[in-house]
Structures are given as C-alpha cells and as structure tokens.
Structure to design on (130 residues):
C-alpha cells in the first residue's frame, strides 16, 4: 500500500519526467513522436522509482527507449535540479516500456478481423521480442 508521501512524489516525478523526456526527444532531432510517463511506482524508502514510458508511434519504441537508456544519467541530473527542494535524495530511475497502446491496437484488429489472438501465437512472440 502506497503512503501519501509516495503518491505525492510519484505525481511530481510523473509530471517532471514527461517534460524532461519530451525535451530529450526534441533535442535529439526526432520529430512527431509522443512520449509520456504513464505510471511511476516508488519504493517505500523513496530510493528507487520504476517509470513506465509510453511511446507513439509504436514503430519508434525501440530507438526512443535506447535513447532514454543512454541518457539515464542526464535525465536523473535534470530531475534532480527540478525536485531538489522536495526530496532529500534523488531516486534511482528504472525505465520500462508501457505497451498498453500496442495491446489495444492488437485487440481492436482481432475484434475487427477473422484472426483469433488466442490460437495465433505469433502475436505473443512479438511482445516478448521487445
């Protein structure tokens, strides 16, 4: 169960990290890419934050996620300058891909088409390869 402090810090991290990631993508020269932080889970001692990132279009997920992973120290430093008055220690950041948009599009395709996602295991292998 999350405490009120964890919820507050998660909200602050979500807003600030979304801004930082958008600036990072814009500065890298990539355009027309939407990147947002969908969820932040923070440990009870506020030392580790799990950040779930949603990237659209889905075709750019791999390259943008690699950019985020390479810039992890820069992201943490930028975050530190934004929240230095609200926390004692800047949490370590662990990024994860939130692929709910891809799952929704696969479900919509399955509902509109004749394919059966339960019997067709190729859809499952796509998700595991990322």
């Amino acid at each position: 169960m999350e405490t009120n402090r964890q919820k507050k810090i998660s909200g602050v991290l979500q807003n600030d990290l979304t801004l930082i990631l958008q600036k990072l993508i814009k500065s890298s020269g990539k355009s027309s890419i939407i990147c947002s932080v969908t969820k932040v889970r923070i440990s009870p001692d506020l030392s580790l934050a799990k950040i779930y990132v949603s990237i659209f279009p889905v075709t750019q997920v791999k390259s943008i996620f690699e950019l985020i992973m390479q810039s992890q120290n820069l992201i943490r430093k930028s975050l530190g300058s934004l929240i230095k008055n609200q926390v004692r220690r800047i949490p370590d950041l662990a990024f994860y891909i939130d692929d709910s948009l891809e799952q929704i599009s696969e479900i919509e395709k399955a509902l509109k088409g004749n394919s059966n996602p339960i019997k067709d295991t190729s859809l499952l292998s796509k998700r595991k390869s990322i």
The beta strands are 34-42, 48-56, 92-97.
